[in-house]
Amino acid sequence: MDRLNRVPLWALALLVVGAIALVLAGIATLGTDALPERTGPPIEDIQVERTEFTPGEIDLTVRNAGPDPVAVSQVTVNNGFANFTGPEGEIGRLETGHLNIRYPWIEDSPYLIGLLTSTGLVVEHQIDAAVETPEADGDFFATMALIGLYVGVIPVTLGMLALPVLRRGGRRWTAALIAFTVGLLGFLAVDGTLEALELSAAGSGVFGGDSLVILCALLAFLALSGIDSWLKGRRSRSEASGASAWQLALMVAIGIGLHNFGEGLAIGSAYSVGELALGTFLIIGFAVHNTTEGLAIVAPLSEEEPRIPRLLGLGLIAGGPAVAGALIGGSVTSDEVAAGLIGIGVGAIAQVIVQLVPSMKDGAGRILNPVTSVGIAAGALALYLTGLLVTA
Fold first, then answer.
1. Rounded distance, CA 18 to CA 108, Å?
2. pLDDT tens-digit profile of 37-95?
3. Which pairing describes strands 80-81 and 72-77: parallel, antiparallel, or unpaired?
4. Any bridge partners for residue 114, and if so which?
5. What pTM did the predictor assign?
6. 197 phi and psi, to 5 degrees?
7. What is the CA radius of gyration of the chain?
8. Distance, CA of 326 to CA of 341 (rounded, Å)
9. 206 or 247, which is more confident?
């Protein structure tokens, strides 16, 4: 026992983890060999993850969600055989394959595509209305970058410039604005969750479906909460050691930038899979919220002389990651992966709400009072009414 006490804690932890991993690997290897071979026909489960329409062609991305390899031998469109090219061999477990079907499809017409495997199993994929798929070219990614600017850099910078106005408005007006933002984000979190669950249901389910959405949201919330706590600790220590107000503002901007990266991921992935209404919702919600984040950045600078270049630099640090997130999210081609990325956005929203709620307290320490209650209701109602004007 005395010898174990002399071993560093990190070395002891690595030893325990290594022993557990070794035992589990042995069980997995020997246990598989000890089990009898499965008899009967192969279990085939192939799912269509993405459908793209180009003139005279239909491209399908399929994934093998079953335990056994699958080979697609024939393809039918509306119960008639169609010429196609695809993988030469079998598609292994969890692997994807691309099928190019040469078919003169008609705009807005419904199509039923059947995939006939080598064992005779038919997998059907219904398309309600055929629409030409926009190319993910330079224009698309330029649009994603522009959306990132709309959501991140511009509103954060505007919020920073609005500090003198809100300062004169007093605490009640600031609390009302924060309450409005909380109501808006709360409605957005609910709507984003429902859309993500619907997207995951349309996917192959290989990566967990609804569980992936919940896991991504939870991990994003916990990761951002941990980072936020660490940054707050750094700020507290910096204040105690006499750090400058600009250094404190920089730490706040970095923390906000991490949030905005997750927000950009959610927006880009929503647009990449055609969820235009959700994408617009996310833009509106995050843009309004990021305006209030600009106030948080300049809060440590209330006694400092404004320096426009530095303020713009802080706005770029806080809002710029939204551009990177939108570009990455915009390259997603799987409904299920897009649902997981939207789940990250939902987790980021929840963490932001947790951060904002304490700022709504009045002099008596109440979070819900007439001003904040009206503000929350107004925020939720505003986004709901906005949604009636947006079509998917």
1. 57
2. 666 677 788 888 778 888 999 998 888 888 889 999 999 999 899 999 988 788 988 88
3. antiparallel
4. 76, 124
5. 0.64
6. -65, -35
7. 26
8. 11
9. 206
Q: pLDDT tens digits for 252-273?
A: 677 677 667 777 777 777 776 5
Tokens of 375: 């503000």
Cα–Cα distance, 359 to 370 (Å, whole number)? 15
Which domains are present in the chain? 46-127 (2.60.40.1890), 138-389 (no CATH)
| Residue 268: both structure tokens together | 């880009």
CB neighbourhood size of 233 (10 A)? 10
The encoded tokens of residue 257 equal 């930038």
CA–CA separation, 218 vs 254, rounded Å?
21
Q: CA 35 to CA 265: how far, in whole Å?
A: 44
In three state form, how does the secondary structure of the chain look?
A: CHHHHHCCHHHHHHHHHHHHHHHHHHHHHHHHHHCCCCCCCCCCCEEEEEEEEECCEEEEEEEECCCCCECEEEEEECCEECEEECCCCCECCCCEEEEEEECCCCCCCCEEEEEEECCCCEEEEEECCCCCCCCCCHHHHHHHHHHHHHHHHHHHHHHHHCHHHHHHHCHHHHHHHHHHHHHHHHHHHHHHHHHHHHHHHHCCCCCCCHHHHHHHHHHHHHHHHHHHHHHHHHHHHHHHCCCCHHHHHHHHHHHHHHHHHHHHHHHHHHHHCCCHHHHHHHHHHHHHHHHHHHHHHHHHHCCCCCCHHHHHHHHHHHHHHHHHHHHHHCCCCCHHHHHHHHHHHHHHHHHHHHHHHHHHCCCCCCCCCHHHHHHHHHHHHHHHHHHHHCCC
Helices 276-298 and 308-329: crossing angle, nearest 10°?
150
Pick from 105, 49, 44, 53: which is nearest to 77 by CA?
Answer: 105
Record the tokens describing residue 235, joined without a space: 């700020």
Token digits for 385?
């009414």
85: left (phi over 0), alpha (psi -120 to 50) or beta: beta
